[in-house]
Structure formats: structure tokens, C-alpha cells
Design brief:
By secondary structure, the protein is α/β, with parallel strands linked by helices. 28% of the residues lie in helices and 18% in strands. The protein has helices at residues 5-25, 62-73, 113-121, 149-152, 172-177, 203-209, 214-220, 234-248, 267-274, 331-339, 357-360, 406-420, 453-457, 481-499; strands spanning 52-58, 78-81, 108-109, 126-127, 138-142, 145-147, 258-261, 286-292, 295-300, 305-313, 324-326, 341-342, 345-352, 365-368, 374-377, 388-394, 428-434, 447-448, 468-470. Strands 1, 2, 8, 9, 10, 11 and 19 form a seven-stranded mixed β-sheet that branches. The protein is globular and about 70 Å long.
């Protein structure tokens, strides 16, 4: 008996429900079907595609690849275009850095049902990392003074009293923002409901209304990824920690809460792309969409053009202001393209040529309220790997690096590190700089909502434009991060399948 597309949708719905259960109870990682997965680079066909496709997916990140796989399973002819010279979008394993750290898209939570299912389906293996940012042993430098974690609770620079006196500064943003969270025990889509719009105000204003003092707010501002506490909606932060709380309650069968993919998380988008019928075309920066007679032509920066009956676009929303649409996008969607932003950050990676912490006897990792913010020796996948260090700066402090070349960034960081901690002078060798915000295809770390934007745009991010359907983590409702990307790709694919 022939399977129709509507039958496929029913099967997907049933599968998604089953995956949801697995996400709650934990999902077995099968080693029986695990294979060694070499880095996969899709072939590059010569010249533009001659045929018209059923669907063209723009963007080979997790959301676009998830959509492409589901569309192919429904029997549609799909082509994926990617502007970068690599797959994965913001999932990016730094192969040239000791220990192969993840530049973004690092942790796979126990509730990442769709992602875990795809990992298992493609025969990849997950493992539990020894350390993450939450349990990293930091040495604190506040107002130029080094303070150990054990001394913080009694230190005169500690701005807290009562229950938060023992709370370390690196935990302020999450813990204090989430204290008495009005979204607690609500469904994950509650942040879009009208009754919570009263929290769509500047986050620092919300915190003051909760009795948080100015010094605490200043220290919380160190780790925020947005343009600053005053430019971030409190509802953005409340939703963020609401989702994180939900995630933290769901464990893997071995009792752990977080995993990574053995060999690097970039193996997942590579394996997803390899499973497709048509090769993903790299270096295809899309510059225009033109719809005529129900067919959309996509133009790329290299002069090639492709046609399809439907398009799924996973380009970050703020990047779309650089893309031409015919007919024009108007109204509230156009306003969102012009005004919604992404998290700001830069990572400056060094190889540690000499263990500076052995010279001064202090912990190697530093959390500061200064210009370089966080300095950490990266978690290694292999214990025999040499040590690598990352300077991780996010939020407003990262903006000055837009004015610098890569070499100037390295030099600036080395000078500032030596001033902060003299034992570091001459011990670091530059490796690379990673910044989604400096990437023309990336826009930033993840979408963040400025005050008033959830109310104005939150329920309109999934609105299609003619034959163009939008996806990406910025359009997700229930989840954030990598699972949010999977959620959005699934939703966009089902929109097309139901029409076909």
C-alpha cells in the first residue's frame, strides 16, 4: 500500500511524541551501530543546478538539515545551500585547537529528544565531559583583587547578604535572575502568553524591582550575552532559565545531565548532510529571493541561481536585512528583521606553552569584572593533548573587537593578560579567533529579545513570506539552542509537507 505524505505526517507526529517520552526518561546511546565517522566534506557539483527542486533549504545548520531530512523522507526533492565553507552553522568543533573544543553548540541535554534521536539514528556516540562552565574552578578578580572561591563568602567585596552570601559571582546571572521566576511550573510556551508581557521590560529594571542591588547587577552584567542588562528583556532571561530548569530535571540513563558527541559535535551536521540524496552546496551565500508564478528563484553571491516550489530559510533574522526579497517583506516581519539582535561574544584561543599557574600558585581559570572577563584552560577530550586557553568575552565588552584585526585582538589580549597576571607573560601562542558575531553568516551567538520585543514580535517569527518558510532557533517556541533548532526545522518542514 502506498504511503501518502499525510500518512508520513502522522508517522512524524507519532515519532515526535515517542521522542518526547524518550527525552524525559532518558535515551539509550547504542554502541552496536556506532561507526568511526571521518570528517565528511560534501562534494561540490560544477555549475548551477539545472532542475527546479521541490524545496530549497537555505542554511546547513541543524535546523536546515533537520528540515531537509524530513522533507526527503516525505518524498520531496530537496537541495541545501550553505553560505559558509563548512557545515553546521553555530555547531562548530574547533579541529585546530588542542582538545577540539566546541566554539558553540556545546552541551546536549537529556531533554534534547530530537537531537538525541538523530545522533542515535546516524550511529554517532556521545560521552559525558569531565567539566563544564558550571563546575569549573574559577579564581575571581574583582576590582583588581584576586579572590579564591572559598574566600568569597567572607570577602568585603561580596555585595550579597542572606541566602546568596555564599553564591559565587559566576553564578549570579542564572541564580538571581531565576529566583522566584514567574514562569516556574508553567508550560515552556508560557513566555509568549499575554499575562507575562508585563515582564517584557529591561532586565536591570526587573532586578531592581526584586530588590537586587546595583553592585550585584554590575557583576551579573559580566556574563550576559546581549547588549547589556538595560538592553535585554527580563522576559528573555526568565524564559532562558525556565527552559534550563526544565532541561536540568531530565537526565540520561546513566544519571548525567549533559553530553557531547565523541569526536566533536560537528560530526552530527556532517553525518546529517551525508545522509541526504543531494550534496549540500557550500560557499553559496544567498543574496536574493524572487518569487514569480509560485516559483522562487534564489540568487547567490557567486552568480549562480536555483529554483524551487518552496523555500526554507534558516538565515539568522538580523542577517536578512542584507538580502533582497521580491516581493518585499513588509510590516511586522520587516520590523523584526531590522531590530531583533543576537548575542555578542568573541573567543580568543591560545596554546599554553608553559603552565603559568605553576609559577604563581593560583588556579589557572579566572573570572573577572575587567576587560577580558573570563579566561579558562579548556576542557580536553584527550588527556595527552597540550593545554589550550580561551579568553571569552561577551556582551558590550566584546564590541571594541569589531575595530580590530585578528592580530590586533591577539596582541591586545596578550598585553592585558600579562597586566592582569604577570605569570602569563610569554606563555601563550595565538591559535585562532572564533566569533559568531564577526561572522557575516552568523550574526551572533543566539537570538535575544530587547525590552518590548517579545510582546511585539514573539508570536510573528514563524510567519511565512509567500513560498518562503522561516526556521532557526530564533523561531523556536518550546526549546532554545540546538534542540530549538531541531524544533524549528521540524515545524517548517511539516508546513510544506501538509501543503504538498
Amino acid at each position: 500500500m502506498k504511503t501518502t505524505r499525510r500518512d508520513f505526517v502522522k508517522n512524524i507526529a507519532g515519532t515526535t511524541a515517542a521522542i518526547g517520552v524518550l527525552g524525559i526518561t532518558g535515551c539509550e546511546t547504542s554502541k552496536k551501530d556506532t561507526k568511526e565517522t571521518a570528517p565528511l566534506t560534501p562534494k561540490q557539483p560544477e555549475g548551477p543546478a539545472k532542475e527546479k527542486y521541490d524545496v530549497i533549504v537555505v542554511g546547513a545548520g541543524l535546523s536546515g538539515l533537520q528540515a531537509a531530512i524530513l522533507l526527503e523522507e516525505a518524498g520531496l526533492n530537496v537541495l541545501v545551500l550553505e553560505g559558509r565553507k563548512r557545515l553546521g552553522g553555530r555547531v562548530y568543533t574547533l579541529e585546530n585547537v588542542s582538545g577540539k573544543p566546541e566554539a558553540a553548540g556545546e552541551w546536549i541535554g537529556g531533554n534534547y529528544a530530537r537531537m538525541i534521536s538523530m545522533v542515535n539514528k546516524l550511529g554517532l556516540e556521545m560521552f559525558t565531559p569531565e567539566m563544564n562552565n558550571d563546575n569549573r574552578p574559577w579564581m575571581y578578580n574583582i576590582k583588581g583583587e584576586f579572590i579564591t572561591a572559598k574566600d568569597w563568602s567572607s570577602h568585603p567585596l561580596n555585595p550579597q547578604t542572606g541566602e546568596f552570601r555564599d553564591l559565587l559571582p559566576s553564578r549570579y546571572l542564572r541564580t538571581i535572575s531565576n529566583h522566584d521566576n514567574p514562569l516556574k511550573d508553567q508550560p515552556l510556551d508560557a513566555w509568549l502568553k499575554p499575562e507575562f508581557q508585563k515582564y517584557d521590560i529591561p532586565h536591570d529594571q526587573y532586578l531592581r524591582s526584586q530588590g537586587v542591588n546595583e553592585e550585584t547587577i554590575r557583576l551579573m552584567n559580566v556574563t550576559i550575552h546581549s547588549g547589556g542588562m538595560h538592553r535585554t528583556s527580563a522576559l528573555n532571561e526568565l524564559r532562558r532559565y525556565h527552559v534550563m530548569d526544565f532541561n536540568s530535571k531530565l537526565k540520561f540513563p546513566d544519571g548525567t545531565g549533559w553530553k557531547m558527541i565523541k569526536g566533536g559535535n560537528s560530526l552530527l551536521p556532517k553525518a546529517m548532510a551525508e545522509s541526504l540524496n543531494n550534496d549540500v552546496l557550500l560557499n553559496k551565500t544567498v543574496v536574493a529571493f524572487r518569487e514569480k508564478n509560485s516559483v522562487t528563484e534564489i540568487s547567490c553571491a557567486d552568480g549562480t541561481a536555483y529554483k524551487a516550489d518552496h523555500v526554507i530559510c534558516s538565515i539568522p533574522i538580523s542577517v536578512l536585512k542584507n538580502v533582497t526579497f521580491e516581493p518585499l517583506i513588509k510590516g511586522i516581519t520587516a520590523d523584526a528583521i531590522d531590530h531583533v539582535g543576537y548575542g555578542l561574544s568573541i573567543q580568543v584561543h591560545f596554546q599554553v606553552m608553559e603552565p603559568y599557574w605553576e609559577k604563581d600558585g593560583l588556579a589557572p581559570n579566572m573570572w573577572t569584572d575587567g576587560e577580558l572577563e573570563r579566561i579558562a584552560v579548556r576542557t580536553k577530550r584527550n588527556k595527552i593533548d597540550p593545554d589550550a586557553l580561551v579568553v571569552f568575552i561577551n556582551g558590550p565588552e566584546s564590541l571594541k573587537f569589531r575595530l580590530m584585526t585578528d592580530q590586533e585582538v591577539f596582541t591586545y589580549c596578550q598585553i592585558k593578560l600579562a597586566q592582569l597576571r604577570p605569570s602569563m607573560k610569554g606563555t601563550l601562542k595565538p591559535i585562532l579567533i572564533q566569533s559568531c558575531e564577526r561572522d557575516i553568516h552568523g550574526a551572533g551567538d543566539w537570538v535575544y529579545w530587547q525590552p518590548g520585543q517579545v510582546t511585539k514580535f514573539g508570536n510573528h517569527m514563524r510567519r511565512r513570506h509567500g513560498n518562503i518558510h522561516f526556521c532557526g532557533e530564533h523561531t523556536a517556541i518550546m526549546e532554545r539552542g540546538m534542540e530549538g533548532a531541531f524544533e524549528s526545522g521540524e515545524r517548517a518542514a511539516l508546513e510544506i509537507i501538509l501543503e504538498s
